[in-house]
């Protein structure tokens, strides 16, 4: 179970990094660039930590990293090409999914053996909170704008 969790978490953080790289390729010189860079910098720290955890745990990364490399960058760049609102909607959708994923892992590890997984639980909770911050940042920066239809409509 732990190997699978770590492999999926690493792949998710890798994919998130590639999404932000794609967004920066398009919006990096815009007024939105510094905001995207700030979120990307946090994602880089997440990826580095999971690189360390994989090495310490002797867990191989997913064989699908080449796919995540291309797909993540393409998703980030294509939504950014549609405008800031679309890039932020992409951020909201991805970060919400990652947060829910971390929550399910936290629940599973708490049920299994919280003392054994204390350090990992701390990392997962911290990263989940960062992801929710990115989610909220996206909402604050027009992810639900009328010019963007990536997210389901929210009652206003």
Whole-Å distance between the termini? 41 Å
Q: How much is the radius of gyration in Å? A: 16 Å
Tell me the number of strands.
Answer: 0
Please state roughly what percent of the residues sit in beta strands, choosing from under 5%, 5-15%, 15-25%, 25-35%, 35-45% or over 45%.
under 5%
CATH topology: the name is Ferritin
What series of H and E elements makes up the topology? HHHHH
Can you say what the CATH homologous superfamily is?
Alternative oxidase
Work out the helicity level. over 70%
Q: Supply the number of helical segments.
A: 5
Average pLDDT confidence is 92
Q: Which architecture per CATH?
A: Up-down Bundle
Helix-strand category:
mainly alpha
Largest sheet: none
Q: Extract low-pLDDT stretches.
A: none
Overall shape: it is globular
CATH class category name: Mainly Alpha
* Total discrete domains: 1
Pathway: Cofactor biosynthesis; ubiquinone biosynthesis
Keywords: Iron, Membrane, Metal-binding, Monooxygenase, Oxidoreductase, Ubiquinone biosynthesis
InterPro entries: Ferritin-like, Ferritin-like_SF, Ubq_synth_Coq7
Protein name: Coenzyme Q7, hydroxylase
Task: Explain the layout of strands and helices.
Blueprint: H1 2-27, H2 33-57, H3 65-81, H4 84-112, H5 118-140
Describe the structure concisely.
With 156 residues, the protein is an all-alpha fold. It contains 5 helices and no strands.
């Amino acid at each position: 179970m732990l190997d699978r969790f770590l492999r999926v978490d690493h792949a998710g953080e890798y994919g998130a990094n590639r999404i932000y790289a794609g967004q920066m390729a398009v919006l990096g010189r815009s007024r939105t660039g510094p905001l995207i860079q700030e979120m990307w910098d946090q994602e880089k720290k997440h990826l580095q930590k999971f690189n360390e955890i994989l090495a310490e745990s002797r867990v191989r990364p997913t064989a699908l990293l080449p796919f995540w490399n291309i797909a993540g960058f393409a998703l980030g760049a294509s939504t950014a090409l549609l405008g800031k609102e679309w890039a932020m909607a992409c951020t909201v959708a991805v970060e919400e999914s990652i947060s829910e994923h971390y929550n399910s892992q936290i629940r599973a590890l708490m049920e299994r053996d919280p003392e054994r997984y204390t350090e990992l639980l701390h990392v997962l909770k911290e990263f989940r909170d960062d992801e929710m911050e990115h989610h909220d940042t996206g909402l604050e920066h027009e992810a639900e704008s009328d010019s963007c239809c990536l997210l389901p409509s929210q009652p206003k």
